[in-house]
Design brief:
four-stranded antiparallel β-sheet; flat
Length: about 450
C-alpha cells in the first residue's frame, strides 16, 4: 500500500537535519556549556558536538576538527539571521508551521516504526520531540523571511547572465541529460470484471486462512503484491488519515486491534487490512494487496483499440489532442490533449520535459528511438499514480539530446543558478557587515577555526 505521498547552502545544515540527526533533538538547554553567543542567541556546546558526532556516524571518514569548524560556521550565520529577525520584530506563529510539522512528525514516526521507537531513538518523549521540532521550524521560517528581505532587490539582466555563464570554467559547465516532451493516450484493460472477481476470491481465501489461525504477516510476505510492505509482513507503519487512501483509511480507523477487515478496494487494487495499533490520530496497519491480472484477451483488445486510434491520427482522421480527450483514461493528461506532465505537490516543481530518470523505463525505451512528431505502437506499462498495468501510445513532441548547458537551450536553469549566486553574494556581504555591529562571543576551545579570523573574533 503506497502512501499519498536551498535549504540554499551548507549554512542551513542544522535546519535540514531536524528529523534525521537525533543529536539535535536530544540537545538540552538547562545548565549547559555555551559554545558561542550571537546577540541574544545562544549556541550550546552539546548542540554542536552531538551534531558533529552524528555526522561522523553517517560518514566516519570526515575529520572531526574540520566538521567542528564547519558546523560552528553554519550555526553562527543562522543565529545572525535569527538575531536580525528579533531586531526587526519578524514573527512566525505556531499555526504557520503546523501543517509541515504534522507531516514531518508523521514521517518520523513511520520511519521509526512507532511513537515508542521514535522516543527510544531520541531518548525523549514525543511531546518534547514535537516542541523541539516546532521551534526549529519556526526559526527556519524566520530566517527565510529575513533572507527574502535582504535579497528582495536582487535582479539579473541578460547581460549579467551572459557574464555569469562566461565566468564558469569550461570543464565545470554542467552536462544536461537527454530530455523529452511527449503526449500519451492511455487505455485501461477492458472488461476487467472477471479479473476483479479472481482477485477478490484470492483475498477471501487468504482472509479465511488468517481467521483460521495462520499468520497475517507470513501470508503478506508470501502473497502481497505491495512489494515494499511485503518485506515487513505487510506492515506500513503509523499513518494519519491524510497519508492513506480514503477507502483504506475509513476501514483502518474503524477496526479494533488485531482484527482483519473485509475486502477494501482502492485505486491500487484489493486489500485486506489488520490493525496493529492506534495512537490518537494515527494507525499502524498491515495489509495484503492483490491486483486484478490482465488476461491475454484483455491485452489484445486494448492493443487493437490503440492501434486503431493511432492509425486514425496518422491518417489525419482525428488529431492526437482530440483523441486523447475522447479516449484516454489518463485523467491528468486527457484534459490537456494528452500532454504528459510529471506532477508534484509543489506546482512550481511540475515538469513536462523529462529525463530518463524521471520517467518509467517502458516509456523511455520507446521514446529514445522515435523521431519528433512520430506516434508509437501500443505498449504495456505501469500507471505512475497507482501502479496499475495499462496500455499506451505516445507521441514524441520534443527531444533534447544530452549536451553541455548553454544559454539558448537551458536559459531558465542557468538564470536560476546565476540569480542564486547573486543572492548568496548579497547575503555574504550582509553577514560581514552584521558581524561588525553584533555582540559575538566564542568559546576558547573553538577559536582555532580559520573562518573566525574573518571578523568573528573581537
Amino acid at each position: 500500500m503506497r502512501k499519498k505521498i536551498g535549504i540554499r547552502s551548507m549554512r542551513y545544515l542544522f535546519l535540514f537535519i531536524i528529523f534525521f540527526i537525533p543529536g539535535i533533538l536530544r540537545s538540552q538547554v538547562l545548565v549547559e556549556s555555551v559554545a558561542a553567543t550571537v546577540g541574544n542567541e545562544v549556541i550550546y556546546l552539546s548542540e554542536l558536538e552531538s551534531t558533529i558526532a552524528d555526522m561522523r556516524r553517517s560518514d566516519p571518514r570526515q575529520s572531526a576538527s574540520k566538521l567542528r569548524c564547519q558546523v560552528l560556521n553554519e550555526f553562527l550565520i543562522s543565529k545572525l539571521f535569527l538575531e536580525q529577525a528579533r531586531i526587526d520584530s519578524v514573527t512566525v506563529t505556531k499555526e504557520d508551521v503546523q501543517a509541515d510539522l504534522n507531516m514531518q512528525i508523521n514521517r518520523a514516526v513511520v520511519s521509526a516504526g512507532s511513537e515508542e521507537a521514535l522516543e527510544r531513538a531520541f531518548n525523549r518523549s514525543i511531546l518534547d520531540i514535537r516542541k523541539d521540532a516546532e521551534k526549529r521550524m519556526m526559526d527556519q521560517q524566520l530566517m527565510r523571511k529575513v533572507q527574502n528581505t535582504i535579497t528582495q532587490g536582487v535582479a539579473l539582466t541578460p547581460a549579467g547572465l551572459k557574464k555569469y555563464y562566461s565566468s564558469i570554467p569550461k570543464d565545470s559547465i554542467p552536462v544536461i541529460p537527454a530530455r523529452y516532451e511527449f503526449s500519451i493516450i492511455q487505455l485501461d484493460p477492458p472488461s476487467r470484471d472477471e479479473s476483479k472477481a479472481v482477485a477478490r476470491q484470492r483475498l477471501l481465501d487468504l482472509r479465511s486462512e488468517i481467521l483460521a489461525g495462520k499468520s497475517f504477516s507470513v501470508l503478506a510476505r508470501l502473497y502481497s503484491e505491495d512489494i515494499e510492505s511485503a518485506k515487513s509482513g505487510g506492515e506500513i507503519g503509523f499513518s494519519s488519515r491524510g497519508m492513506l487512501e480514503k477507502e483504506y483509511a475509513d476501514v483502518a480507523f474503524s477496526l479494533s486491534k488485531n482484527t482483519v477487515s473485509r475486502i477494501v478496494e482502492t485505486r491500487y487494487g484489493y486489500h485486506i487490512i489488520q490493525l496493529i495499533d492506534r495512537k490518537n490520530d494515527m494507525v499502524n496497519t498491515r495489509h495484503i494487496l492483490i491486483r486484478p491480472k490482465i488476461s491475454e484477451e484483455q491485452s489484445e483488445k486494448a492493443i487493437s483499440k490503440l492501434d486503431s486510434i493511432a492509425d486514425q491520427i496518422r491518417n489525419d482522421s482525428i488529431t492526437f489532442e482530440n483523441a486523447a480527450m475522447r479516449f484516454s483514461t489518463h485523467k491528468d493528461s486527457r484534459t490537456n490533449g494528452g500532454k504528459f506532465v510529471l506532477l508534484s505537490a509543489d506546482p512550481s516543481q511540475r515538469k513536462s520535459t523529462l529525463s530518463m530518470d524521471e520517467m518509467d523505463a517502458d516509456t523511455y525505451m520507446i521514446l529514445r528511438d522515435m523521431n519528433v512528431g512520430e506516434i508509437s505502437d501500443p505498449f504495456k506499462t505501469v500507471d505512475e499514480q497507482d501502479g496499475r498495468e495499462v496500455f499506451r501510445i505516445v507521441r514524441l513532441d520534443k527531444a533534447m539530446p544530452a549536451h553541455t548547458a548553454n544559454l539558448k537551450d537551458d536559459y531558465q536553469m542557468l538564470y536560476n543558478s546565476a540569480l542564486q549566486t547573486e543572492r548568496n553574494k548579497v547575503e555574504q556581504e550582509w553577514v560581514k557587515e552584521k558581524i561588525k555591529s553584533t555582540y559575538i562571543r566564542i568559546s576558547d576551545e573553538y577559536k582555532t577555526c580559520d573562518f573566525l579570523k574573518e571578523g568573528w573574533l573581537k
